[in-house]
Design a protein that fits this description.
Blueprint (H helix, E strand, L loop, with lengths): L11 H22 L7 H25 L5 H25 L3 H21 L13
Helix pairs in contact: 1-2, 1-4, 2-3, 3-4
Bound molecules: fe (ii) ion (2 copies).
């Protein structure tokens, strides 16, 4: 999935982070479509976990500072997303790599991101003045 101008939040750094997340899933989706991905899956999960936590933290601070009315809801949805990722890390550690499961995760992340950004993150643009 690709970042789209309709996902713009009014904060260039948040948009950059969203783009990087979409790029990660897109790159890994390509690897999976070639029948590969087993050896890099742990690294992808590790990257996603660290990146998403950093992004969520940054974005939650922005929303809080801007007194965005969906700040609480944003936090809640972020927590649910982290849970989904943590669950996959657990299953991966227990059962090992599954191509089908990795595909499901990539789809879930893309769907979650698109839906969450459109409903929640974009609301920030009504409450902050755009930076450069
Ligand atoms: Fe968010
Ligand atoms: Fe976000």
């Amino acid at each position: 999935m690709k970042w789209q101008p309709s996902y713009a939040t009014g904060d260039a750094e948040i948009d950059r982070q969203h783009r990087a997340l979409f790029e990660t899933t897109e790159d890994y989706r390509e690897v999976l479509s070639e029948g590969a991905g087993k050896n890099t899956y742990d690294g992808v999960l590790e990257f996603l976990m660290a990146y998403v936590e950093a992004h969520f933290g940054y974005e939650e601070n922005c929303m809080h500072a801007a007194r965005c009315p969906v700040a609480g809801r944003n936090k809640k949805e972020h927590a649910a997303f982290i849970k989904m990722l943590e669950k996959e890390v657990e299953v991966q550690a227990r059962d090992g790599f599954s191509h089908a499961r990795a595909m499901v995760l990539v789809d879930s992340i893309d769907n979650w991101l698109a839906s969450h950004i459109c409903r929640i993150d974009v609301q920030l643009r009504n409450f902050i003045s755009p930076k450069k």
